[in-house]
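Lab notes, practical 5.
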Amino acid sequence: MRRRRYTEVKIVLAFLAITLTAGVWASKAVSSPSLTPIGNWSTVSAPLPVALANETVDFYGNTLYVTGGQDANDNPVAATRLGRISPNAALTWTSGPSLPRPLLGQAAIISDRNLLVIGGWDGSQRRQEILRAQIQSDGSLNSWQLAGTYPNP
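Output from the prediction step:
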C-alpha cells in the first residue's frame, strides 16, 4: 500500500510540475509575440528493448537516458538504456552501465553533464542514495558512483 501511495504522490507531483510549466510557457508565448517556430515535429519510433513502468527518462544532447523501472513481473530492474537520436530522427537503443541495484520509482535529473538518480524502491525498501554517472562527450555514461544520500522523509 505504501509503495502505491508513494507512486501516486510522485505522479501527482509530476502532473503538477508539467501543468505549471505548460502554463508558464503558454503565458510567455501569449505575452511574447516575437517568438518564432522551431520547426516541424517528427515522430521517432523505436520501442525500448524491454517493456518498463516506473522508469525515469532524461534527455541530454541527442541521447535519451532510461534508468531503472519495473518489468512485466513487477520486479525492479537495474538496467540503464541509452536511446541515440540520429540527425535523420532514427532512434537506436544501447545498454549503459547497470545501476548498483534494481530500482523503480526513483527520480532522475541531469546537472553539469551528470545523470543523477535519486532514491527509489529496490523491491524491499526505499533507498536514500543519490547515484551519479558522468555523461561523456559521445553521450555514453561512466560507471555509477555514490554521490550522497538524502534524509529519510
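Observations recorded by the TA: Residues 34 and 130 are 41 Å apart (CA to CA). The first strand starts at residue 56 and ends at 60.
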